[in-house]
From TrEMBL:
GO terms for molecular function: 2 iron, 2 sulfur cluster binding; FAD binding; iron ion binding; oxidoreductase activity. SUPFAM superfamilies: CO dehydrogenase flavoprotein C-terminal domain-like, CO dehydrogenase ISP C-domain like, CO dehydrogenase molybdoprotein N-domain-like, FAD-binding/transporter-associated domain-like, Molybdenum cofactor-binding domain. The lineage of its organism: Eukaryota, Viridiplantae, Streptophyta, Embryophyta, Tracheophyta. Keywords: 2Fe-2S, FAD, Flavoprotein, Iron, Iron-sulfur, Metal-binding, Molybdenum, Oxidoreductase. Signal peptide: none annotated. InterPro entries: 2Fe-2S-bd, 2Fe-2S-bd_dom_sf, Ald_Oxase/Xan_DH_a/b, Ald_Oxase/Xan_DH_a/b_sf, Ald_Oxase/xanthine_DH-like, AldOxase/xan_DH_MoCoBD1, AldOxase/xan_DH_Mopterin-bd_sf, CO_DH_flav_C. PROSITE patterns: FAD_PCMH. PANTHER family: XANTHINE DEHYDROGENASE (PTHR45444:SF3). This is FAD-binding PCMH-type domain-containing protein. It holds the Pfam family FAD_binding_5. The keyword Flavoprotein applies. The keyword Protein biosynthesis does not apply. It comes from Triticum turgidum subsp. durum (Durum wheat).
Length: 814
């Protein structure tokens, strides 16, 4: 394995890689925190493609990258130049219209842009431009263009013989990498509880976000028997460690080689994979990892079940047994595998003539999102006594129960019958019975999800009927309007234009200038807080957070945390040297009182008012050790009644004091009563809270100066001055003894004005007390849990308007 990071492909001194150069020149970065990710996604695509990718491939490839501030249009535009184009369109002789006029390929209108007489002049001026233009990927030192020094895969790594590995980690963790099936089975017999790892996309989430701890881990991705991908008589054999991206490539080849009636299942799996996560995940995640995780919303498991796939399981004694996919999933994240067994491979059977397989997935977004409901369905039609009837059918839904749900009653109804409109109503009724979603089902949106189960079935009905009609074997009439439901969704390539006026009056304002830091951002030379070199002796911080919504803190026990590796200190409200308050600046310097209402503490001292409220901060030698120690702080609470929604707060008359405001103009009641409104409607709109979702999480590096009498910090904040004030207040120092610097931030969107200060204040308490530098960088989940959002709103409205849409009166209560 050879890992290349964005720093490796180009920088400002050596010259930019063309991918970096394009993104910078095309205004594809603003604060630039996402930029190296985009560069590397594009670079990886170019390096791994034999031929220039298509625009669609480029866009698909970026599906796992998020950008919050630039917007995707300039990024996609920037990378569009690397796409394969149909050169003949431009180079072949121009098409002509009926009048014999040449048609311009770019505008589609008559033009003279390639008029013979103009060509020389145009091209010579163009050439002179090209000659003087030196792209920034051109290196001034050695005069080479970048592509003359593209890095190659290191030969020494290519020659290196891969070895089995055994690594010992901290806290007794062991990591094995067997290279043979027999080694793997031997390890599994020694460590039946060992966690098998392939792409780590599931296990990584468990260990990082759910505090799962596995003492023995076995990486099985190099075991050849688990990497099998081959066509057999029965179907395709897919090893459990096969990456989803390899499977995609293989299925494309199989579909191209085999008759379409044999590959209906392959096509369904391939289409489902298109909307499975994004390229980055598909490049590492495996077939076996997805199956064995047995997630109720797995996108593939309902399809394996519907296709009649078989799973081969091997035990530590080399015995192989086969089970059908339908019998494999036993419960929530529970599968039919004993401690001494592993999943060996999957056999995906070929489909028969007139056997149709369809996949479905509905999510909030198409790309990189989890399904609300998904499904796999298979219908086999055969001829019996002169009519074409359903001889075999499989309907499996994901996302509606703890395990993928087979709709047995509807299946029985269909078998032996013609698939026609006459059956639909009954089938819909049975589907409703068979796939009930409780009102409080996890995931919510119950009505919508229930209706999805029916519409998926309707879609396969349309599809099969259409196929049979096309072959002249059925005459079921299909509404033209329904036909679009037959096609699988394909998203056209994103196109956007931006119009702006060029102001050319000797000023850069109004000009589309490339931002000065763009080249720093595309090369990742731009430093954010987390990139700042830490001073010697720096400690890393993790927060101790409330697990209760509303409760009194009874006790805080740090005895176990103190023994945790690398632990250096726990700081609570009692340790704050100055005021423990956070609130509007005008209230600062009043010891231990909160602003407006008394809820602005740095560390909760007595009562917590939300899950995720900060109770303390732990510092340790590493970020991981700090997190582990913080998890070991044991807090006892006495629960208090909690109000969890705006509706509940209104019911309980629980309002913030002095917050009533009223704006009134005219007399709305009079207008409602006056009969001038043709219609009056009333209703409610509930808008949930919104996360600010800056790309760079909250982070601060704090260090003491002058033996701890002064505090300096680099913070990711939109308001360094506010940081200075609050930290001074919390430490009881004069403003002149606190310095806050902000070089750049990776996004704020308002979430780093007042919200960022609490983390700087918490870290500064630890830094001040210990006289050591402290760095705090929040994990994304902690960030989202601890920072306030833009509030939710409940609006109750009564609005009167005329028939031609003129609003006459509005009574709105928010
Ligand atoms: C950003 C993101 C997006 C995602 N999107 C989707 C999505 O769109 N659809 C979807 O369905 N899932 C999605 N997932 C879930 C996950 O990626 C898949 O479940 C993936 O296929 C897991 O494969 P892996 O190789 O990474 O598994 P790993 O994390 O390596 O392993 C997962 C589990 O499988 C077990 N296991 C692996 N191989 C075997 C074997 N041979 N025998 C027995 N047990 C085994 C492991 O012990 C472990 O418990 C997403 C995950 C992430 C992080
Ligand atoms: S540049 Fe992409 S999130 Fe800011």
């Amino acid at each position: 394995m050879h890992i290349m990071t964005v720093e490796g492909i180009g920088d400002r001194r050596r010259g930019l890689h063309p991918v970096q150069e394009r993104l910078a020149e095309a205004h594809g970065s603003q604060f630039g925190f996402c930029t190296p990710g985009f560069v590397m996604s594009m670079y990886a695509l170019l390096r791994s493609s034999k031929y220039p990718p298509t625009k669609e491939q480029i866009e698909d490839n970026l599906a796992g990258n998020l950008c919050r501030c630039t917007g995707y249009r300039p990024i996609i535009d920037a990378f569009g130049v690397f796409a394969k184009t149909d050169d003949s369109f431009y180079t072949a002789s121009l098409s002509e219209n009926v009048n014999g006029q040449a048609i311009c390929p770019s505008t589609g209108k008559p033009c003279s842009c390639r008029n013979e007489t103009d060509v020389d002049a145009n091209e010579s001026s163009l050439l002179s431009l090209v000659k003087t233009y030196l792209p920034s990927s051109y290196n001034e030192t050695d005069g080479n263009a970048y592509n003359e020094k593209e890095l190659i895969f290191p030969p020494e790594l290519q020659l290196r013989k891969i070895m089995p590995l055994k690594l010992n980690g901290l806290n007794g963790i062991r990591w094995y990498r067997p290279l043979k099936l027999e080694q793997l089975l031997q390890l599994k017999s020694c460590y039946p509880d060992a966690k098998l790892i392939i792409g780590n996309s599931e296990v990584g989430v468990e260990t990082k976000f759910k505090n799962a701890q596995y003492k023995v881990m076995i990486s099985i991705m190099h075991v050849p028997e688990l990497q099998t991908l081959k066509m057999e008589e029965e179907g395709i054999r897919i090893g459990s460690a096969v990456k989803l991206a390899w499977l995609q490539m293989f299925l494309k080849k199989v579909i191209a080689e085999r008759g379409s009636h044999q590959t209906s299942s392959c096509q369904a799996i391939l289409r489902q994979l298109k909307w499975f996560a994004g390229t980055q995940i598909r490049n590492v995640a495996s077939v076996g990892g997805n199956i064995c995780t047995a997630s109720p919303i797995s996108d593939l498991n309902p399809v394996w079940m519907a296709t009649g796939a078989k799973f081969q399981i091997i035990d530590v004694n080399n015995n192989v047994r086969t089970t059908i996919a339908k019998d494999f999933f036993l419960g929530y994240h529970k599968v039919d595998l004993k401690d001494d067994e592993i999943l060996l491979s999957v056999i995906l059977p070929w489909t028969r003539p007139f056997e149709y397989v369809k996949e479905f997935k509905q999510a909030h977004r198409r790309q990189d999102d989890i399904a609300l409901v998904n499904a796999g369905m298979r219908v086999h039609i055969t001829e019996a006594e002169g009519s074409w009837i359903v001889s075999d059918v499989s309907i499996v839904y994901g996302g509606v129960a703890a395990v993928p749900l087979t709709d047995g009653k509807t299946e029985s109804l269909l078998v032996g019958n013609k698939m026609d409109y006459g059956l639909l109503d009954e089938a819909f009724n049975l589907l409703k019975e068979d796939t009930p979603l409780a009102e409080n089902a996890p995931g919510g949106m119950v009505e919508f999800r229930s209706s999805l189960t029916l519409s998926f079935f309707f879609k396969i009905f349309l599809y099969v009927t259409h196929e049979m009609n096309t072959k002249g074997l059925s005459k079921e009439g299909l509404y033209v309007a329904s036909m679009s439901a037959i096609q699988s969704y394909t998203r056209p390539f994103t196109i956007g234009t931006q119009g702006y006026e060029l102001v050319q009056q000797g000023t850069v304002v109004g000009q589309p200038m490339v931002p000065l830091s763009a080249t720093l951002q595309v090369t990742a030379e731009a430093e954010y807080v987390d990139d700042t070199p830490t001073p010697p002796n720096t400690l890393h911080a993790a927060l101790v957070l409330s697990k209760e919504a509303h409760a009194r803190i009874l006790s805080i026990d740090d005895s176990v945390a103190k023994c945790s590796p690398g632990f250096a200190g726990l700081f609570l409200s009692k340790d704050v040297p100055g005021a423990n308050s956070i609130g509007p600046i005008r209230f600062l310097h009043k010891k231990n009182i909160g602003p407006i209402i008394h809820d602005g503490e740095v560390f909760a001292s007595d009562v917590v008012t939300c899950v995720g409220q900060i109770i303390g901060i732990v510092v340790a030698d590493t970020h991981d050790n700090a997190k582990a120690a913080a998890n070991k702080v044991n807090i006892k609470y006495s629960k208090l009644p909690a109000i969890l929604s705006i509706e509940e707060a209104i019911k309980a008359s629980s309002f913030h004091p002095h917050t009533t405001r009223c704006l009134s103009k005219g007399d709305v009641e009079l207008c409602f009563a006056s009969n001038t409104c043709d219609k009056v409607i009333e209703g409610e709109v509930l808008v949930g809270g919104q996360e600010h979702f800056y790309m760079e999480p909250q982070c601060t590096l704090v260090w003491p100066v002058d033996s701890g009498n002064e505090i300096h910090m680099i913070s990711s904040t939109q308001a360094p001055h506010t940081h200075q004030m609050y930290v001074a207040n919390v430490l009881g120092l004069p403003l002149s003894k606190v310095v806050c610097k902000t070089k750049r931030i990776g996004g704020g969107f308002g979430g780093k004005e007042t919200r960022s200060v609490i983390f700087a204040a918490a870290a500064s308490v630890a830094a001040y007390c210990l006289r050591r530098p402290v760095k705090i960088v929040l994990d994304r989940d902690v960030d989202m849990m601890t920072t306030g959002q833009r509030h939710g709103f409940l609006g109750k409205y009564k609005v009167g308007f005329t028939n031609d849409g003129k609003i006459l009166a509005l009574d709105l209560e928010i």
